[in-house]
Specification:
The structure holds 2 protein chains of 2 kinds. In chain A, 0% of the residues lie in helices and 53% in strands. Chain A has one domain: Immunoglobulin-like (Sandwich). Chain B is mainly beta. Chain B has a single domain, classed as Immunoglobulin-like. The chains are: A mainly beta, B mainly beta. The interface between A and B is medium-sized, with 22 and 25 residues.
Amino acid sequence: GESVGLHLPTLSVQEGDNSIINCAYSNSASDYFIWYKQESGKGPQFIIDIRSNMDKRQGQRVTVLLNKTVKHLSLQIAATQPGDSAVYFCADFTQGGSEKLVFGKGMKLTVNP
Amino acid sequence: DAMVIQNPRYQVTQFGKPVTLSCSQTLNHNVMYWYQQKSSQAPKLLFHYYDKDFNNEADTPDNFQSRRPNTSFCFLDIRSPGLGDAAMYLCATSRGTGGQYFGPGTRLTVT
């Protein structure tokens, strides 16, 4: 079946470093991708999204890169802070499909002070 | 601020005792979703409403039901909770164009 997955289950970084979280997807028809941040005991929080007609999108301290050739998505966090510690999920959506997101497995980011 | 609200945040129920979780939204989104999330796992979609149209996932047990009386509210009913139903239950909304906005979740404990 179609799936969206993450390469690494855990990532530990030092405060101030840049973090990169990777995600592979398999549905070539996917046209919209989202990154969510989920802190312990809370619901997923929308971070940034990107549509398939783009290869890069920047937000505040975050950048999402999309490589459709290899079906790869990444989230870059600049100057990582302790407050960035959370589980990060990528998710995939197909416009005109079932209105459903396909979530990756999640990757836990730990920022050490 | 526009938001997705879930009540209660924590719910304890007894094995087999029906329980209802509620979700409300001020975003005026036409799609509402219910997810189940267990520890260290991604959210698992149970069902969703596109306006009044109910869409059940094939692997959602019959024990789980939902109601959407109006655009703003959606309920999750668990008819006979089992120990395996203990989880975080997340409500989300969208305009149907992709981005979903999640509520804070309800942590269900089954004793």
